[in-house]
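Ticket #4471: structure export looks truncated?
Reporter: QA, pipeline team
Priority: medium

Steps to reproduce: submit the single chain below to the structure queue and open the exported record.
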Amino acid sequence: MARLLSLKDTPNTSREYETIYILRPNTPNEGVAEVNTRIKGVIESMGGKVLKVDNWGKRRLAYEVAKERKGIYLYWLYLAKSGVVEEAERNLRMLDNVIRYLTVKVDENIVVDARPSEIDDTSYEKAAQTAADEEDLFLSRGGDDLSASDDDDGDVYSDDYPAEDFGGKPKAKAEAAAPAAAAAEPEAPAEQPKEPKDKE
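Actual output as written to the record:
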């Protein structure tokens, strides 16, 4: 059954869409490639043209989604007729690896032949490769950057902030200076409590 096209679309033109979907952070590269192949198949089988595919890597989410704090972001830019977005989102909704997706119409009445495509087979292969998360790399190293500090007294705390603010031990300089300062000041005599005056 042929889909009824919108009457406001100019004949022989398409709409430009951006789709971003987020995969679970533990999705392997083969799983990312599988989802990309499925979306590519939906767009191209319905007469669409993919202009750009990009893997933005693993990023922290603004809030927890489907019990995940991070996700793998994928960006698609494509030309398509009406109905392609609904079918692509229906396919994304059925996949367990996809935790969120969003499609935005960028422009309409685009002549398909006038828009060059930046896509070839290596673009899809590159989009399936997720770069290592910088935060995970830092944590797996165990925070090596902290131990390589150039601080002269060997602690990792800055001299601008007391070590107690960071849960560390007070510096020895401050401990040694406290008795010397106490010896330099004469002790003030203790004040005697005053007797209350009787009211007459």
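Status: closed, not a bug. The export was complete when the record was re-opened. Leaving a note from the reviewer for reference: The chain is about 30% helix and 25% strand.
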